[in-house]
Design goal:
single chain; alpha/beta; Rossmann fold; eight-stranded mixed β-sheet; six-stranded parallel β-sheet; 16 strands; globular; binds GDP-alpha-D-glucose; Glyco_trans_20; EC 2.4.1.347; alpha,alpha-trehalose-phosphate synthase (UDP-forming) activity
């Protein structure tokens, strides 16, 4: 038993190793939880991000960090395998086929046990433990068995599928049993919560749409947005996409919509910036997605670009967060077109960068964010014509819609999200 009154358990610690030292990895979750962790004598249990590295507990930015180490087999079976090749596609409604593999499952169990044991050791008598996301669904049950005195919350950041899909999972009963160790499970949307409740009504659940750290995205100065627009040829319409390179995000679909609009001569004087962070690159479906996206970009530029003036400007690297703000501020139209997405924080970040009502958001109906951002230009990414129509509507936006969404996001930020979950817990 430890002395931490509040314990966060997440797959990753909120730090990244840069050369020989650690830096806090930026992100809403850290921003929201850091004040709670500091105020309540808390700690964060997670993997530091390097395979095979064993670290002693350390403190960073005023937060106590408790590292859980993963070896190569853990990484392949638990992380790349069961988490990201079984659960991720299953919970995103089979956009690609999930793989069911007994060895991955066994690793998932073993790694969840490591996290549960670390949390059990860190938590004080009667502590509150908040477990995050699909990688750790067995932790609540395992932890409750070792430490019945603690209060356990769980938040699922990704969608929860309809029962007919979930029931494909060979280990569906074990996952449900794991989650039943919770005192409260939080979901992004009511539909996720409803799907879960069709399977079991024994557990207390709630819907808590996650949000962004509203202070993090500032409106960029005019000088830097002008520089950016100039760099892409001062187009009439600057379109933007920002995503992890993931098949759920519908990056190819927005490119195909753009290509078709250019083909039909409906959209002119346009530049499209696509920033795509490399993600899960050893998994075949991710490599295929990247290949298809890059092929489409090459084809569009070949067909419609000029020498020195491509249509699509593409970056496949991670960009510093402050630069991201310049892109958000400069873009006339933000394209967020996932086939399925728990929430999608990029949509909220774009809205946060447009307090004056300029700019327009094209948003998939299948993103959790569409529930709150219903004033966006909504589209169905499975229907190319619907994406095209939303883009065309967004070329002549109504500023009242953006202002309305901006006010909503600023008020419902990630701090409010964390507070509402923890109060309910
Ligand atoms: C999962 C769920 C849910 C992106 N590129 C760069 C960069 N980013 C940042 C964005 C944003 C975050 O990454 C992405 O968050 P999303 O919510 O859009 O998507 P997932 O990564 O799939 O997140 C999702 C979320 O969890 C939270 O619950 O909303 O549905 O899938 O903050 O700004 N950040 C930097 N450089 C980049 O190049 N610094």
């Amino acid at each position: 038993m430890g002395d931490n009154e509040f314990v966060v358990v997440a797959n990753r610690l909120p730090v990244d190793k840069v050369e020989d030292h650690y830096e806090v990895s930026p992100g809403g979750l850290v921003a929201a939880l850091a004040p709670v962790l500091r105020a309540r004598e808390g700690c964060w249990v997670g993997w530091p991000g390097n395979i095979g590295e064993t670290l002693d507990p350390f403190e960073f930015g005023g937060i106590a960090l408790l590292p859980v180490s993963l070896d190569q087999d853990d990484f392949e079976g638990f992380y790349e395998g069961f988490s990201n090749s079984t659960l991720w596609p299953l919970y995103h409604d089979l956009i690609v086929q999930p793989e069911y593999n007994q060895e991955w499952w066994e690793r998932y169990v073993a790694v969840n046990r490591k996290f549960a044991e670390a949390a059990a050791e860190a938590a004080a008598e009667g502590a509150t433990v908040w477990v995050q996301d699909y990688q750790l669904q067995l932790v609540p049950g395992m932890l409750k068995a070792i430490r019945p005195d603690v209060t356990i919350g769980f938040f699922l950041h990704i969608p929860f599928p309809a029962p007919a899909l979930f029931q494909q999972l060979p280990w569906r009963n074990e996952i449900l049993e794991g989650l039943k160790g919770c005192d409260l499970i939080g979901f992004q949307r009511h539909t996720d919560e409803d799907n879960f409740r069709l399977l079991t009504e024994e557990i207390r659940t709630g819907t808590f749409p996650i949000s962004i750290d509203s202070g993090e995205i500032a409106v960029a100065p005019k000088a830097s947005t002008s520089r950016l627009r100039e760099a892409v040829g001062d187009p009439k319409h600057l379109l933007l996409g920002v995503d992890r390179m993931d098949y759920t995000k519908g990056i190819l679909q927005r490119l195909l919509a753009l290509e078709s609009l250019l083909d039909e001569g409906k959209l002119e004087d346009v530049a499209f910036v696509q920033l795509a962070t490399p993600s899960r690159e050893r998994i075949e479906h991710y490599r295929t997605t990247r290949r298809e996206v890059e092929e489409a970009i090459g084809r569009i530029n070949g067909r419609f670009g000029e020498v020195g003036r491509p249509i699509v400007h593409y970056v496949h690297r991670s960009i510093p967060k402050d630069q991201l703000g310049t892109y958000y501020s400069a873009a006339d139209i933000m394209l967020v077109t996932p086939f399925k997405d728990g929430m999608n924080l990029v949509a909220k970040e774009y809205v946060a960068a447009h307090p004056d009502g300029d700019g327009a958001l094209v948003l998939s109906e299948f993103a959790g964010a569409a529930v709150e951002l219903d004033q966006a230009y909504l589209c169905n990414p499975f229907d190319l014509e619907s994406v095209k129509a939303a883009v065309m509507d967004a070329t002549d936006p109504d500023p009242a819609r953006m202002r309305h969404m901006h006010d909503w996001v600023m008020e419902h930020d990630v701090a409010a999200w964390a507070q509402s979950f923890l109060e309910e817990l």
